[in-house]
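Deliverable D4.2, example record:
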Amino acid sequence: MYFKEIILYGDRGLILDFGQQSSKSISQEVNAYYHHLKVLGLSSTNIVPSFNKIVISFYSEVDRKQSLNKIQQEISQINPSTTKQNQSTWTIPVCYEDSFALDMQRIQELHDLTKEEVIQLHSNTTYYTYYIGFMPGFPYLGDIHPSLITPRLESPRIQIPARSVGIAKEHTCIYPKVSPGGWNIIGQVPFNLFSLEHPRTSLFLPGDEIKFHAINQKEFERIQKKDLSIDSLIKEYAS
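Output generated by the structure prediction step:
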């Protein structure tokens, strides 16, 4: 058990603290608590997990006070190893062609790898979704193969194309929207990951497992033209 304590956060928030370290086992416990808290019916505006914290925001200080006892009682009964989580396993297509892979050459030179080796190392790993953060729908995925661990760009880009796949340190990601960012871009997926028109909004959820597979530009364009909805993506790419 990694859970440490509940900390008051501002005048309307709480933080569930799981320590200062980060690892997949810690994240799995965080996500077990997160999934449990989501179904408690709290008077909260948001419940947000990270590597080793869960932040709960309430409508008012009164709501926080009323919810605190309930949370304390509930979490004392949580057994992360037996908590059922609605996790999905995804197989996601990525085009690693040069027009999408803005930093492929940098990664090749830094690690003395061929492009084919970078693609193989990146796509042969099953990634764990630590949490959704930075922007809505942005999945922090880990852990990448040690041979691909790469520092962020010294000068972040002002604009990264939507759906770009990136690498930074031990993690990989997908940018759901056009955004500034300092991750090393190595490819792009052919569909959107985020939709305000769907109750789920984010395609991926904390705890999901994701594996990438390489596609060529022709296949990328074929999938892109389908303009798939969140429901269609779940049906086609999740299990």
